[in-house]
Amino acid sequence: MQAKDRANEFRQRCQGLGIEGVTLHSYRYSWAERARKAKYPRREAEEALGHTCKAVHIAYARRAQVTVASLEEYESAADKKVVAVDFEKTGQSGATKEESPTGKPECQGVGAAKG
Questions:
Q1: Could you tell me which of 7, 62, 3, 67 has the C-alpha nearest to residue 32?
Q2: Dihedrals φ, ψ of 68, to 5°?
Q3: Residue ranges of the domains in the chain?
Q4: Which residues of 63-76 are buried (b: 16+ CB within 10 A; e: fewer)?
Q5: 95-99 and 105-109: which strand pairing?
Q6: Which residues, in sequence order, are bridge partners of residue 109?
Q7: 106 pairs with which residues across the strands?
Q8: Other CB atoms closer than 10 Å to residue 102's CB: what's the count?
Q9: Are 66 and 33 in contact (CB under 8 A)?
Q10: What proportion of the chain, given as a percentage, has pLDDT over 70?
Q11: What is the DSSP letter of 66?
Q12: What's the rounded Cα separation, in Å, for the pair 27 and 72?
């Protein structure tokens, strides 16, 4: 069944049931709005809906009522996700020292500055 046929079938069934103002296309808008409200990744929503243009997807999801969390809520969530590691206790420093071509030791590893 082609998309045009599905839309006609849906429209006829809605008319038969006395339902007005609903189309198959309205479900696409609704899905895009729900995805945005749920903070579903935009690129994945675009892919799911078959949108190849960011502007089209934004138009579909524009009416979504999005609630933005406060900075405190994000900080609290981040604190719960961060795992503290005591490198001194585990015997790991998170960095290694290597000799550079100039003969000076360089520190490489997590958070180490280059140069």
A1: 62
A2: -95, 130
A3: 3-61
A4: eeeeeeeeeeeeee
A5: antiparallel
A6: 95
A7: 98
A8: 7
A9: no
A10: 75
A11: P
A12: 35
- Burial of 85 from C-beta contacts in 10 A (0-12 / 13-18 / 19+): exposed
CA angle 60, 64, 65 (to 5 degrees): 170
29 burial (CB, 10 Å; 0-12 / 13-18 / 19+) is: middle
Cα(70)–Cα(42) distance, integer angstroms: 21
DSSP-assigned letter for residue 58: H
Angle at which helix 54-61 crosses helix 42-49, to 10 degrees, equals 90
pLDDT digits 0-9 by tens, 38-92: 888 988 989 988 888 888 888 888 888 777 777 888 788 877 877 777 777 766 5
Q: Taking residues 97-113, what's their average pLDDT?
A: 48
